[in-house]
């Protein structure tokens, strides 16, 4: 069954993700996904579900069997969901503890397309060489789980950690680059936001941005902006910015 471009109407059906989505009339959701569907959600034959590959392809169907092997789904329609515009990129300074996964979870639910872990000068948390893979795995697993929860057709990319110099290169290539800064005079609401291209948002660590980081980002073409009078945590500021940007672009 060939996939058609478009966006399926929301219907409340749960979403399951497979590493590959075969072009078959029936799909088997097995492994951890299948166990969750059968043992936790207790889905039964006849119930509607969606199965995706996390890259924009979605299959709609109904459950025909649920058991030890997992969930067997009969496909009724397939869609190739185009990437949303504009592309939203979050450059997230490494928060401490579980606030990193929290930032990833919130950003994913609010539509981020790419998350860049950034080792800022004042980060309390440091991913040493022997911890990079573990940290990335946790962030990527969180993004995948939040994608299913929010029923998004695409799992956001979590890139390798970047240095300040590398982040500057990313900002220079963006169509709009913003740095959240509590001392900025310009509110985010006053920025002209493009309807296409790439928008990058930088969120600093708990200790704040250094003057050198702010100057480097401005030299790369970024604008320093504030969200409001309140000072948000690094784990929630990115989500707030993404929501504000989406109001005038994707949600309008």
TrEMBL record:
<dbReference type="InterPro" id="IPR029028">
    <property type="entry name" value="Alpha/beta_knot_MTases"/>
</dbReference>
<comment type="similarity">
    <text>Belongs to the RNA methyltransferase RsmE family.</text>
</comment>
<feature type="domain" description="Ribosomal RNA small subunit methyltransferase E methyltransferase">
    <location>
        <begin position="85"/>
        <end position="245"/>
    </location>
</feature>
<dbReference type="GO" id="GO:0070475">
    <property type="term" value="P:rRNA base methylation"/>
</dbReference>
<comment type="function">
    <text>Specifically methylates the N3 position of the uracil ring of uridine 1498 (m3U1498) in 16S rRNA. Acts on the fully assembled 30S ribosomal subunit.</text>
</comment>
<feature type="domain" description="Ribosomal RNA small subunit methyltransferase E PUA-like">
    <location>
        <begin position="29"/>
        <end position="75"/>
    </location>
</feature>
<dbReference type="GO" id="GO:0070042">
    <property type="term" value="F:rRNA (uridine-N3-)-methyltransferase activity"/>
</dbReference>
<protein>
    <recommendedName>
        <fullName>Ribosomal RNA small subunit methyltransferase E</fullName>
        <ecNumber>2.1.1.193</ecNumber>
    </recommendedName>
</protein>
<dbReference type="InterPro" id="IPR006700">
    <property type="entry name" value="RsmE"/>
</dbReference>
<dbReference type="Pfam" id="PF04452">
    <property type="entry name" value="Methyltrans_RNA"/>
</dbReference>
<keyword id="KW-0963">Cytoplasm</keyword>
<keyword id="KW-0949">S-adenosyl-L-methionine</keyword>
<dbReference type="InterPro" id="IPR015947">
    <property type="entry name" value="PUA-like_sf"/>
</dbReference>
<dbReference type="InterPro" id="IPR046887">
    <property type="entry name" value="RsmE_PUA-like"/>
</dbReference>
<dbReference type="InterPro" id="IPR029026">
    <property type="entry name" value="tRNA_m1G_MTases_N"/>
</dbReference>
<keyword id="KW-0489">Methyltransferase</keyword>
<dbReference type="InterPro" id="IPR046886">
    <property type="entry name" value="RsmE_MTase_dom"/>
</dbReference>
<dbReference type="GO" id="GO:0005737">
    <property type="term" value="C:cytoplasm"/>
</dbReference>
<dbReference type="Pfam" id="PF20260">
    <property type="entry name" value="PUA_4"/>
</dbReference>
<keyword id="KW-0808">Transferase</keyword>
<keyword id="KW-0698">rRNA processing</keyword>
């Amino acid at each position: 069954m060939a996939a058609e471009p478009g966006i399926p109407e929301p219907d409340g059906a749960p979403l399951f993700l497979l590493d590959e989505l075969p072009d078959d009339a029936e799909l088997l959701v097995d492994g951890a996904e299948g166990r969750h569907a059968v043992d936790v959600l207790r889905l039964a034959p006849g119930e509607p579900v969606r199965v995706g590959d996390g890259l924009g392809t979605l299959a709609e169907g109904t459950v025909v069997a649920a058991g030890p092997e997992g969930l067997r789904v009969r496909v009724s329609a397939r869609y190739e969901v185009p990437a949303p515009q504009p592309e939203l990129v979050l450059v997230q300074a490494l928060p401490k503890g579980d606030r990193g996964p929290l930032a990833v979870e919130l950003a994913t639910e609010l539509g981020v397309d790419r998350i860049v872990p950034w080792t800022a000068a004042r980060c309390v948390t440091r991913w040493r060489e022997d911890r990079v893979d573990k940290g990335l795995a946790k962030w990527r697993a969180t993004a995948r789980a939040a994608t299913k929860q929010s029923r998004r057709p695409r799992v956001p990319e979590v890139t390798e950690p970047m240095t300040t110099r590398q982040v500057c290169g990313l900002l220079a290539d963006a169509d709009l680059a913003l740095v959240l800064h509590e001392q900025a005079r310009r509110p985010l609401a006053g920025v002209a936001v493009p309807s296409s291209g790439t928008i990058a948002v930088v969120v600093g660590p708990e200790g704040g941005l250094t003057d050198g980081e702010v100057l480097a980002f401005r030299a790369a073409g970024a604008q320093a902006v504030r969200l409001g009078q309140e000072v948000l945590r690094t784990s929630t500021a990115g989500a707030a910015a993404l929501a504000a940007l989406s109001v005038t672009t994707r949600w309008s």
